[in-house]
Design goal:
The chain is mainly alpha-helical. It is built from 10 helices and no strands.
């Protein structure tokens, strides 16, 4: 007889640490999905527990209230959007324009994933109630990317490829121009084609670099 038990579901006996961690991740992912579908107010611990196949007591043993569970679920979603430094360094093509275009496409691609889209929408819908989720996303996911771009610009200022400038401000402007508009469109259901993304990214990167070239 085939065992149809999910590998993340608890079977007989005490679960292993790996099984417990998998069940915890399942809890957070399910909670975020329900918070987005139903809103924070209308989502209950009981609903989440039932959906994930846990008792309320099990959930409350880890999270004393709904707000704590919500923040933990959003934090997991943020962590899944963090790009490791080594991945960013692999995008460095040696040519500033090519590297900036690769970074932009990577970031837009993140938002287009189900996980990325879910995170952006939950920040948009619940950020007024929990402003810390916006600042956490900025600090942990967006700011390291901005700092990496600023470092690329610093290197090109030093080589004379671009004029001296406030590279952090330029990096913020880059992210806002080339990523921000696309993200808003995607979150609102207007998913661009790959050709649209490539065209906008190429145009905006070269517009930025034309403004930064030495005079």
């Amino acid at each position: 007889m085939t065992d149809k038990t999910s590998p993340t579901r608890r079977g007989a006996g005490r679960p292993t640490r790996e099984q417990a961690e998998a069940r915890h991740r399942e809890l957070l992912d399910t909670a975020l999905k329900l918070f987005l579908e139903n809103g924070f107010e209308m989502t209950t611990i009981e609903t989440i527990a039932t959906e994930v196949g846990m008792t309320k007591r099990t959930v409350y043993a880890r999270y004393p209230d709904k707000a704590t569970l919500f923040l933990a679920a959003v934090q997991r979603a943020i962590e899944r959007q963090i790009v490791p430094r080594e991945v960013l360094e692999e995008l460095d093509r040696g040519d500033l324009a090519d590297t900036l275009e690769a970074i932009a496409r990577m970031r837009i691609g993140q938002v287009m994933t189900p996980e990325g889209l879910r995170l952006q929408r939950i920040i948009n819908t619940e950020g007024y109630r929990f402003p810390t989720i916006f600042t956490a996303h900025l600090a942990q996911s967006a700011r390291p990317l901005i700092e990496f771009v600023a470092g690329l610009l610093d290197r090109n200022v030093a080589s004379g490829a671009i004029a001296p400038t406030d590279t952090v401000l330029a990096a913020n402007s880059f992210m806002s121009m080339v990523v921000g508009g696309s993200v808003r469109a995607i979150v609102n259901g207007r998913t661009p084609t790959r050709e649209d993304i490539d065209r906008k990214v190429h145009f905006t990167v070269h517009l930025l670099l034309n403004g930064l070239r030495p005079r």
